[in-house]
Design a protein that fits this description.
Elements: H1 3-12, H2 37-59, H3 69-72, E1 73-76, E2 79-82, H4 91-123, H5 143-147, H6 151-155, H7 171-176, H8 185-224, E3 231-235, E4 244-247
Antiparallel strand pairs: 1-2, 3-4
Helix pairs in contact: 4-8
Length: 253
Amino acid sequence: MSAAFRKAAKARQRPHRERAQPAARTKLGLLEKKKDYRLRAQDYHKKQNALRALQKKALDKNPDEFYFKMIRAEVKDGVHVIKQPKDEITPEQMKLMRTQDIKYVEMKRVAEAKKIERLKAELHLLDAAGSGPRRHLFFVDTEREVQQFDIAAHLDTVPELVDRVYNRPTIATLQREAVKGPTDPAHLKKLAQQRKNQYDLLRQRIEREKAMFVISQKIQTRKDLLDKTHKVKVKKETTTGPAIYKFKFQRKR
C-alpha cells in the first residue's frame, strides 16, 4: 500500500467523539465513558478497603474495653452528638460571681451618675426640653393690686426679658453695664443647637444610669434566690424592675 493511499484513507476517517450527557439523566450520575473506568475502579477499591478495615477493627475490638466517649456521646435522630460536660459550680462560688457582677455594674453606674452631675452643673437645667411650664407666684394684699400688677416693674426688669427663666438682668444692671455675649442671630442659633445636644446627651446618660440600676437589682435578686430559704414570688420581673419575692422569716444566730 502506497503512502499516498494511506494518507487518503486516513483523511476519510471521522474522528470519534463521546456523546453528551442527556439532561434527563444528569441526576443518575456521570455517563459511563471509556476514559472514566480507571477512576471508577480506584474509587471502588478505596471504598472496599475502608470497609475491610472497619470490619477488622470491629472483630479485633475487646468487648470489655471502656473509654469515656461511651458515656459522653449519644445518637439523636441519627446524628452522633457528644455531650458537653456541665460546669460544676458550688452555691458559694455562684454567690461570689454574682457579687463581682454587681460590683462591676455599680462601678459603671456610679461613673455614669458622676457624669450626669457634671452635666447638670454645666447646664443648670436651663430651658430643658420636655420640662413642664414654670409658674412664679406673687402674693398681694388686695384685689386692686392684682388688677394693677405689673410683673416687669415687680421684677425690676424690661418687659422683653420677663419670659426668660435665666439671665434676667435688672434695669440698674442694664444701665450700668453693657450687654455681654454674642448677639448675632446665626451665632445664637448655633449656641442653642449645642445646648440642645448637651441636653440630649444628659437625657441619654440618665436613661443609661437607670438601666444599670435595674440590672444591678436583678443580679442581686438572682443572688438572693441561691439561698435555700422558702420563698414566694410576689411580683413578676419586668423591663423596669426585678421580680419581688417574699422570703420566709428565719432567725439568724
